[in-house]
Amino acid sequence: MPPGLPDTRWRILTPTGTTGGIAIIHVDGEVEAVLGRLGMKAPAPGRVALQSIAGADRGLVARWSPRCVHLMPHGGRAVVREIADRLAAAGVSAAGEEDPRSLYPEAEDLIEARMLHALARAASPLAIDLLLDQPRRWSAFESGSGPAADADHSRRLSRLIEAPLVVMLGPANVGKSTLTNSLAGSAVSIVSEAPGTTRDHVGVMIDMAGLVVRLVDTPGLREAPGPEEAEAASIAMELASRADLLLLCGDTASAPPDGPFPAGETLRVRMRCDLGTASWPGDVAVSGLTGAGVATLVRAIRDRLVPPAAMADGRPWRFWAD
Ligand SMILES: Nc1nc2c(ncn2[C@@H]2O[C@H](COP(=O)(O)OP(=O)(O)OP(=O)(O)O)[C@@H](O)[C@H]2O)c(=O)[nH]1
Ligand SMILES: [Mg+2]
């Protein structure tokens, strides 16, 4: 490996773990040496060029200043991983948490740098307008003319930056995987008439009316599981304990089990609502097969995680981690 480059770091600014359209890889420090080691040519400061990025993809390379460049390949995981590996092999270290002002030299102050940094990473489209308004809100607060921030309010809004975890729990064969597929718009989960079809956890990122969530379909909970299913059920409960929202799924004919489930927010979802008369109401009735109630469920999930009142609230949002 070539010798390390002092004061030179890279980091991914766009959300990782997703298959986003474009990734932004920030490099600051000895930019010309880094790009040279990757077999690339650094554009002049202030210029943007389209070129091969480390041989992994063709994309934009933007030189914001003599010591700062952004590589913008397609955001597929394999491409990003390949470029990260090439950077590591070239002796360039990944950055830890650092002052966002060094990442955004164009920002007027710290709050604007934090805002730009959050905008680059935010998972949800709903975050954009709220983030853009934060410098104004924080300066009103600091000048004594605006309200103060609130930890609970800020924690909820931060779900717009880091996609919250939504976990479906319920008995086998109530239509959890069919609903997951319907929400995801493609077959991500295996569906069948045999109870116990889902043996593993299927996670998918879904835009729910502007709020991007990580939805996990779990194997059905069964009364007398075999050893493999018992293991799967314990993983489901572990996931449930980390969930921001649990979807407790029951069938039209029978309510979901009462638990005990990990404490946290829940929505009781009456599945396969196209099948006959309901014996229990649930918070939302839905049919993954016909699509009935799916739009209502999407709104209910979004509004439970980030309530409309929180979106309309004019208090400043503490959207960065210390
Ligand atoms: N009528 C009707 N049938 C459905 C609906 N959703 C699923 N089904 C059927 O119910 C059966 C079970 O569906 P799945 O989606 O595999 O159910 P699951 O809850 O994921 O089952 P496990 O993975 O075994 O826990 C299949 O035969 C589906 O076609 C629905 O909304 N309406
Ligand atoms: Mg299933």
Structure commentary:
This protein is α/β, with parallel strands linked by helices and 322 residues long. It folds into two domains: 9-96, Gyrase A, domain 2, CATH 3.30.1360.120; 108-322, Rossmann fold, CATH 3.40.50.300. Helix content is 31%, strand content 20%. It has eleven helices and twelve strands. It has helices at 31-37, 77-89, 100-103, 110-121, 127-132, 134-142, 151-157, 176-184, 227-242, 294-305, 308-312, and strands at residues 9-12, 25-28, 48-53, 57-65, 68-72, 93-94, 165-169, 202-208, 211-217, 245-251, 265-271, 284-285. It has a six-stranded mixed sheet. A hairpin with a 2-residue loop joins strand 8 (202-208) and strand 9 (211-217). It is globular. The mean pLDDT is 85.
**Broad shape:** globular
Order of helices and strands: EEHEEEHEHHHHHEHEEHEEEHH
Stretches where pLDDT is under 50 for at least 5 consecutive residues are none
Major sheet: size, sense and barrel closure? 6 strands, mixed
Distance between the termini: 34 Å
What is the CATH class name of the largest domain? Alpha Beta
The CATH superfamily title of the largest domain: P-loop containing nucleotide triphosphate hydrolases
Set out the fold topology.
Layout: E1 9-12, E2 25-28, H1 31-37, E3 48-53, E4 57-65, E5 68-72, H2 77-89, E6 93-94, H3 100-103, H4 110-121, H5 127-132, H6 134-142, H7 151-157, E7 165-169, H8 176-184, E8 202-208, E9 211-217, H9 227-242, E10 245-251, E11 265-271, E12 284-285, H10 294-305, H11 308-312
Parallel strand pairs: 1-6, 7-9, 7-10, 10-11, 11-12
Antiparallel strand pairs: 1-2, 2-5, 3-4, 4-5, 8-9
The site of guanosine-5'-triphosphate has 22 residues, from helix 8.
